[in-house]
Design brief:
Largest interface: A-B, 35 and 29 residues
Structural class of chain A: mainly alpha
Radius of gyration of chain B: 19 Å
Largest sheet of chain A: 2 strands, antiparallel
Largest sheet of chain B: none
Helix content of chain B: 55-70%
Distance between the termini of chain A: 110 Å
Order of helices and strands of chain A: HHHEHHEHHHHHEEHEEHHHEEHHHH
Strand order of the largest sheet of chain A: 1-2
Structural class of chain B: mainly alpha
Strand content of chain B: under 5%
Distance between the termini of chain B: 62 Å
Number of helices of chain A: 18
Order of helices and strands of chain B: HHHHHHHH
Oligomer: heterodimer
Number of helices of chain B: 8
Helix content of chain A: 40-55%
Strand content of chain A: under 5%
């Protein structure tokens, strides 16, 4: 009996030893892959703005940043990165739409981020009266200058501030030089986010991968009085909401020379256009397409060559959308061709409306109330046209919003023209239909 | 009296731990490991046919379903295999297979962890894209190891 129990115990202990020993062996086995962390890089000086200094520690990112110097149109159909490629020559109606405004002097297709400081200081739109505010998105020195001068920054002259500008858009505009994490350096966006109900101190990484771009790729205005750079997002980011906001504060960028309309100029509202799009609603960030992860040797980096994703469709599109790149590209042009056509129709309708309003204004005895109404319609129509025209994607960022906005622009432009014609008795008053 | 209960509790815990260890070891025995890590084992339920077929033609065909869908590590792996296995068995027995089949959040995190574990060298600059509210690797690389499930 005793012997049997002892035998059982020995067997049980043996099994236990096998199990525990085997388990210990498996746990002890180093199955975690070799740590592939980056070597700890030194943190840069908190006020570092020179891209070349960042480049010493992040040579592969810096290489991709250098590609921003490339100037090519292909394969883009409507955009591209070109030097002094005049929109005014390509779309003749623009001079009519911006009569009396600086945009009628010079307006070009833009080129890479590395040219921002050069291009802003050589364009004819800048004159001795231009404020330093125009530097805000053109140089890495700006956050420090805003901190240094406070509200006086916005009242200093452009040429005066130029002495303190050294670099174009730089690494430090989006990255903390000490930790390299993403950060917001432009006060207008921080305030704009609060207007939209976001907490600027609690943003996810995926949100930041859009918002660092939204520091600049947005509609803005200079607040009357202070000249402070402000985003008109109090009512939202849709064209109708921004227009309603401008109506509320009776803001105008300039008085239209031919039509006498208190007119608005929209500025590259890429962020606003993107809101509500197919890609945005699925959580895609600007950086997902414009800064895709690219293989560099045996590792990946986020591309810092800000350009049309058509230049690197394999990384930007094909990662999610399998299938032929030619088919994908043809889908992009399918959208852009239609938006561009509607945009030109809206632009030409607006030019017609402007000529009708000008004619009415010069006709003695025309109906002043109707003329004012026509100008109001012109103001709204042109803002909607510009929301799409100034946006740099020919509708691809949000084709539905682009076409819907242009539909309103075309309709309002026709109403403006008809109303102006009626005001001088050149068209029958609208009958109930 | 209290002593006896304490003894029983320790015994139950000890026996459970021993059983779990035994189960974890058994999972690693070559014949067992070969069987459960064979994608054909997962495709034993025909709802996995499409994933099985597309995985077999993918760049990840040389690794098994479990390499991505089960946590790495001896004990965590055994635990996640038991957890998934028990859930799949329950769904199979009750005939409540969802259509389309979608990954649970726990499964998504597990797969993400495994993407980053194997591709650590590739993503050493980029980091884990899912940190701080970022996106999963497979938000974009959604057809890489196998196709997305059928949608009827």
């Amino acid at each position: 009996m005793l012997k049997k129990t002892r035998g059982m115990t020995v067997v049980l202990v043996l099994i236990a030893v096998i199990i525990v020993g085997g388990a210990g062996f498996m746990v002890g086995r180093n199955i975690t892959p070799a740590a592939a962390e980056l070597p700890a890089l030194p943190s840069l000086h908190p006020s570092e703005t020179d891209p070349a200094v960042f480049g010493q520690f992040y040579p592969r990112h810096y290489d991709s940043y250098q590609r921003n110097f490339q100037m090519v149109k292909e394969p883009s159909k409507y955009g591209g990165s070109m030097e002094k490629d005049s929109h005014l020559e390509r779309y003749p109606y623009l001079r009519t739409l911006w009569a009396g405004y600086a945009f009628a002097k010079e307006y070009n297709e833009d080129r890479g981020h590395v040219y921002t400081n050069v291009d802003v200081s050589t364009i004819q739109r800048i004159n001795e009266k231009s404020p330093a505010t125009c530097w805000t998105c053109k140089s890495g020195e700006v956050p420090a200058l805003i901190a240094k001068y406070g509200d006086k920054y916005y009242q200093t002259s452009f040429r005066e501030m130029e002495k303190e500008i050294k670099h174009p858009v730089s690494c430090s505009d989006c990255h903390d030089p000490q930790t390299m994490s993403l950060r917001l350096t432009r006060p207008a966006l921080v305030e704009g986010l609060r207007k939209l109900g976001h907490d600027p101190d609690h943003l996810t990484r995926q949100e930041m991968r859009t918002l660092v771009c939204a520091q600049c790729h947005v509609e803005y205005y200079f607040a009357p009085g202070t000249g402070k750079l402000t985003f008109p997002w109090d009512k939202g980011t849709d064209p109708e909401q921004i227009y309603a906001y401008y109506q509320g504060i009776q803001f105008a960028d300039w008085d239209h020379q031919q039509a006498g309309t208190r007119s608005l100029k929209a500025q590259h509202p890429e962020f606003e256009m993107f809101q509500g799009s197919t890609h945005q609603s699925q959580g895609v960030a600007c950086a997902d397409c414009h800064m895709p992860y690219m293989n560099q040797g045996n590792s990946k980096i986020s591309s810092h060559w800000w350009t049309s994703p058509l230049r690197h469709m394999e990384q930007s599109c094909a990662v999610c959308h399998r299938g032929s790149l030619e088919t994908l590209k043809s889908r992009v042009f399918y959208t852009q061709d239609r938006v561009q056509d509607a945009l030109n129709r809206a632009g030409n309708s607006l030019a017609d409306a402007i000529l009708a309003i000008e004619k009415t204004a010069g006709t003695a005895g025309s109906d002043a109330a109707k003329l004012a109404e026509a100008r109001g319609l012109h103001r709204e129509a042109q803002f909607y046209w510009d929301y799409v025209a100034a946006e740099n994607s020919s509708g691809f960022h949000n084709s539905q919003k682009a076409l819907g906005t242009l539909a309103k622009a075309i309709d309002l432009a026709h109403q403006a023209r008809t109303t102006a014609d009626q005001a001088r008795g050149a068209a029958p008053a609208k009958t109930a239909g | 009296m209290l002593k006896r209960w304490l003894f029983r509790a320790v015994a139950v815990l000890g026996v459970s731990a021993a059983l779990f260890l035994a189960y974890a070891v058994v999972l690693k025995l070559p014949p067992v490991a070969r069987a459960v890590n064979n994608p054909a084992f997962c495709a034993g339920c025909h709802v996995m046919d499409q994933q099985y077929a597309s995985h077999a033609a993918s760049s990840h065909r040389s690794i098994s379903c479990n390499d991505c869908h089960v946590a790495h590590g001896f004990l965590r792996g055994a635990w996640s295999e038991a957890e998934s296995g028990a859930r799949h068995l329950a769904i199979y027995v009750t005939g409540t297979t969802p259509d389309p089949i979608r990954a649970l959040n726990v499964s998504r995190s597990r797969v993400q962890e495994n993407c980053v574990a194997c591709h650590a060298a590739t993503v050493r600059t980029v980091g884990d894209t899912h940190r701080d509210g970022g996106v999963y690797c497979f938000a974009c690389h959604r057809s890489t190891p196998h196709d997305r499930p059928y949608k009827r």
